[in-house]
Amino acid sequence: MPHIWIECSRNVAAEPEARALKQAVYAAALETGIFPVGGIRLRFQVIEDYIVGDGDPTNGFVHIVLRIGHGRDLDTRRKAADHVFEKVVALLTPLRDRAPLAVAFEMQEMSAELNYKFNNLHEHIERRRNAA
C-alpha cells in the first residue's frame, strides 16, 4: 500500500502542473517513510465527461484518493496525508491561480478483514536493488 487514484478533468490535463502530478504524488508518498516501494500503485486518469460547479467549461478538477492498509495510528496517517496534500497544493497553486480549479484529496484506510493480496513485487524489487 498505498493505492493511489488521481483523476483530473480534460481541461486541465495538458497543463504542466497536471502533467507533473503523478510523479509528485508518488514521490510524496515515498517521502512519508511509511509505504514500501513494492506496495505503491498509482493510476492517473483524465476524465472526459464531467460537470464541475456551475457547469462552466473552464472549471476544472483534480481528485486524489490514497488508500492505505489497515493498522497505522491516526497521527501517522494524518502526518502522511498532510505531507502528500501539502505537495499537491504546492504543485497545483499556480494552476489554481490561472483557472477555476477544485482539488480534493482523501486518505482512506482499507478493511483489515476484507483486504486480500496476491503479490510478488516486493521480492522482485529487492532483487533488482541487490543486483544494482
From TrEMBL:
Alphabetical keyword list: Isomerase
Superkingdom: Bacteria
GO molecular function: 5-carboxymethyl-2-hydroxymuconate delta-isomerase activity
InterPro entries for the chain: 5-COMe_2-OHmuconate_Isoase, Tautomerase/MIF_sf
Secretion signal span: none
EC number(s) given by UniProt: 5.3.3.10
Broad class of enzyme this protein falls into: isomerase
This protein's name: 5-carboxymethyl-2-hydroxymuconate isomerase
Protein species of origin: Aquamicrobium terrae
